[in-house]
Specification:
Layout lengths: L4 E8 L4 E8 L2 E8 L6 H4 L1 H4 L7 E7 L16 H14 L5 E6 L1 H13 L3 E7 L9 H7 L3 H18 L3 H9 L2 H13 L5 H7 L3 E7 L7 H7 L3 E5 L6 H4 L1 H12 L1
Parallel strand pairs: 3-4, 3-5, 5-6, 6-7, 7-8
Antiparallel strand pairs: 1-2, 2-4
């Protein structure tokens, strides 16, 4: 029997907008999952959360502001720090005293920012192919190369069309739902980075930390670098960067191992 899943919302007074999240009933420490740039947790992670390794867990799939089912405020900053502040406000509002936190790609940067704010309330901090350093990835660099007005006016639609032409249909589907402003400002934030870096904050956090790679994303020098720092490194077979869609069952197993 599957746990009940319900779409809920939280009103951030600071952002003046409604954050929506899919909550899946279960036990144990709540696991919050945060998606990457142009994605939505409500689209990408239900199969992960309902896979055998996590099926009994209490899981919360957050769509960040500007993405998925959440509101698209026009006067929100959409930097990693801005997203993290709203997520931290949500965690406070629903009185979660202890959580496990998972973030993928851009969502990994947001997760590190959330963990930096909440410190010892985070039991396990699990990232998958997250942005740890300034400079961004190829997608975010391409997006940030446009100025904001041009991106909002026409480049966003062109980016979705290019994703479809390249066969990246899932990302194109979630990108259609995004605020172009959120995508551009998020990409620019990833390229600019923060100080101290997300990498340094990840290294210094007191939670148990793990980092997940898709097998097709290897080799990656961070496998050795992170391992040398005492960070648990896990590999999801038969997948690349979009591991939540490419192999949700194995990603769930990796997350379960990291938070066990």
């Amino acid at each position: 029997m599957f746990p009940w899943a319900r779409m809920k919302s939280f009103v951030s007074k600071a952002a003046g907008a409604r954050l929506r999240f899919l909550e899946i009933d279960g036990g144990g420490t709540p696991l919050i999952m945060i998606h990457g740039l142009g994605c939505a947790s409500s689209y990408e992670y239900p199969d992960v959360a309902l896979s055998p390794a996590l099926r009994e867990r209490h899981v919360i799939l957050i769509d960040l502001l500007g993405f998925g089912y959440s509101d698209h405020p026009v006067d929100f900053g959409y930097r990693m720090e801005d997203h993290a502040e709203v997520v931290a406000q949500f965690i406070e509002a629903v009185s979660l005293d202890r959580i496990d936190l998972y973030g993928h790609s851009m969502g990994g940067s947001v997760a590190v920012e959330v963990a930096h704010r909440l410190q010892s309330r985070i039991g396990n901090l699990v990232l998958s192919e997250a942005n740890l350093d300034s400079g961004g990835g190829q997608f975010s660099r391409n997006i940030a190369a446009s100025n904001e007005a041009d991106y909002v006016r026409h480049v966003h639609v062109e980016t979705v069309a290019d994703a479809l032409a390249a066969g990246n249909c899932d990302w194109a589907a979630t990108m259609r739902l995004c605020s172009p402003l959120a995508v551009h400002r998020g990409a620019r934030s990833l390229v600019e980075g923060v100080e101290p870096s997300w990498r340094d904050r990840f290294y210094q956090h007191p939670a148990h930390r793990a980092f997940i790679f898709g097998e097709r994303s290897l080799p990656d020098p961070d496998v050795a670098v992170l391992g040398a720092r005492g960070i648990q490194v896990l590999i999801v077979k038969n997948s690349g960067h979009s591991m939540g869609l490419e192999n949700p069952t194995e990603l769930a197993s990796a997350i379960a191992e990291a938070i066990s």
